[in-house]
Specification:
513 residues, mainly alpha, 6 strands, elongated
């Protein structure tokens, strides 16, 4: 226990230094919405603008507030900014190593062997294609995974104590786990599968009393981080998840249709069941936009299947509850993820926990012999490390600032119009405060004349100041077509402005209709 602070310090230092070495974050979501939503929330301008960051403009801003605050304070210190941005990943790594050791201590005899086994599984879990690219990333995926892993650690501790000494789980601990899961799910819906999975496994392994305490706290945590923004969306649009689930909430601004990104979902029920085995070969466009390969979850899948017969036969002994917790949390979170998202970078927690399954399966078959367990864990770790292809979400070389933006040709009182699904939202932070931004070609705007499109036309008709467009320099044809739909045309020479993140073409506009 006395060495835990040193382990935490080492994990945070390693993650911070890795973030510095990776370079400055320049990912697409940062340019599109992650900076904008925090800015818009703090400035109270989410509905002063109209879809400035496309559909993502309406996402919960709370997980991105720390990143925005860091940018305001450390923009002139990009390496320090990157180091601090990597710290949440360090905390997550620490928690996972604690979980790995807790599981290892159950399946092998001897403190030293358990530490060695945890280190092997930890090495595999902390080098995956979801976790490593998330270090220092503005997505907050690593930060949101922290309360999920902390909740799992609390439940695991209760399961182990129930199995070894028969102690009933502490209601306070279960409420704490539920609160952490609810906070994470409210911050980012992508964490919801893990909250549901761990919650169900509390019921299955620790009973109704523990599950009730966790469930009530989970609901409270979720409402704490989700409800304030959801109420704003409900008041302004009629849909607390706008623009998603509009077939349920029926905002008058959009058709009553389900708006979701289905690009990465399994294409069939069979593929949903076997999806991880598609990840054994290098792909792009399957579960991520970029090149990717990772064997951790497929190997964990096979290990889980191998673990079932001895587990059902009762060979786990006092560790049965912990074993079922691990298998159930992995299986249920995967099933919910495959149904809802299909995006690999949301699987940080599962990617880590899957690395514990080979040692569990080997231990159940080895019947107390530690060498086969260590050998299987080592082989799985080597296979995973040797085959991983990690996506780079946009880190680049450090410059003088984290984000450098020269003066923009947007005069005070102007209306700036984006015209496509390119990421321009971050520019709003660097515009005059009385300027507005609207995206006429946002990624959820259809050719139909919806109420939202009519609202955009009303904003254009009422605006008395200068109107400018912004687009990528190579997207002129799409820009002109979108402008024509709204009765607008280029009124003069365009100016290309290069920021540290991208190049943007600004053009003055005139109304011809």
């Amino acid at each position: 226990m006395r060495r835990l602070p040193l382990l935490l310090l080492a994990c945070c230092l390693a993650a911070g230094l890795w973030s510095v070495l990776a370079g400055t974050d320049r990912n697409w979501d940062l340019r599109n919405y992650q900076l904008y939503v925090a800015f818009a929330w703090l400035e109270g301008r989410l509905f002063q603008d109209v879809a400035a960051a496309q559909m993502q403009a309406f996402y919960n801003p709370v997980p991105h507030l720390p990143w925005y605050g860091l940018l305001r304070g450390l923009n002139d210190y990009p390496r320090l900014f990157a180091f601090v941005g990597g710290l949440p990943a360090g905390v997550l790594a620490f928690l996972f190593l604690r979980v790995a050791h807790a599981h290892a201590a159950v399946v092998v005899p001897g403190r030293g062997v358990a530490l060695l086994l945890a280190a092997v599984a930890g090495l595999a879990g902390l080098t995956g294609a979801a976790f490593v690219p998330a270090i220092g990333l503005s997505s907050a995926d690593a930060a949101v995974a922290v309360p999920v892993m902390a909740a799992y650690a609390l439940v695991l501790r209760a399961a182990l104590r129930r199995g070894t000494i028969g102690e009933r789980p502490s209601l306070a601990a279960m409420a704490g786990a539920g609160l952490l899961l609810g906070l994470a799910g409210g911050l980012k819906m992508t964490a919801a599968p893990f909250g549901a999975a761990i919650g169900l496994m509390i019921l299955a392994t620790l009973g109704l009393r523990a599950a009730a305490a966790a469930g009530l706290a989970l609901a409270a945590g979720f409402l704490l981080t989700w409800a304030p923004h959801a109420l704003t969306l409900w008041r302004e649009t009629g849909n607390p998840l706008f623009p998603h689930f509009n077939h349920v909430f029926r905002s008058p601004l959009l058709p009553a249709e389900a708006i979701r990104d289905e690009r990465f979902l399994p294409r069939s029920a069979l593929q949903a069941v076997l999806y991880p085995f598609w990840w054994l070969r290098e792909t792009s466009g399957l579960v991520t936009e970029l090149r990717f390969r990772d064997w951790r979850i497929p190997l964990g899948y096979l290990a889980a299947l191998a673990a079932l017969p001895p587990l059902l036969a009762g060979r786990a002994g006092a560790g049965a509850r912990a074993a079922w917790l691990l298998l159930g949390a992995c299986a249920l979170s995967y099933a919910l993820w495959a149904w809802l998202f299909g995006v690999y970078r949301y699987l940080i927690v599962l990617e880590m926990l899957a690395c514990l399954l080979p040692m569990l399966a080997a231990a159940l078959w080895a019947r107390g012999r530690w060498r086969p367990v260590l050998a299987v864990a080592l082989l799985a770790a080597v296979a995973a490390l040797a085959t991983t292809v990690r996506p780079n979400w946009g880190h680049g070389r450090h410059g003088a600032q984290v984000i450098s933006v020269p003066p923009l040709p947007v005069p005070p009182g102007a209306l700036l119009l984006a015209t496509g699904d390119e990421p321009h939202g971050y520019l709003a932070v660097f515009m005059p405060r009385d300027a507005r931004m609207m995206n006429l070609g946002a990624n959820f705007i259809t050719p139909a004349e919806t109420a939202l499109v009519r609202r955009m036309r009303e904003v254009l008709a009422a605006h008395q100041g200068p109107v400018w467009s912004v687009s990528l320099p190579e997207a002129a044809a799409r820009r002109d077509a979108t402008l024509a739909r709204f009765g607008l045309a280029i009124a003069g020479p365009c100016e290309t402005v290069r920021t540290s993140l991208d190049a943007h073409a600004f053009c003055p506009l005139r109304k011809f209709n």
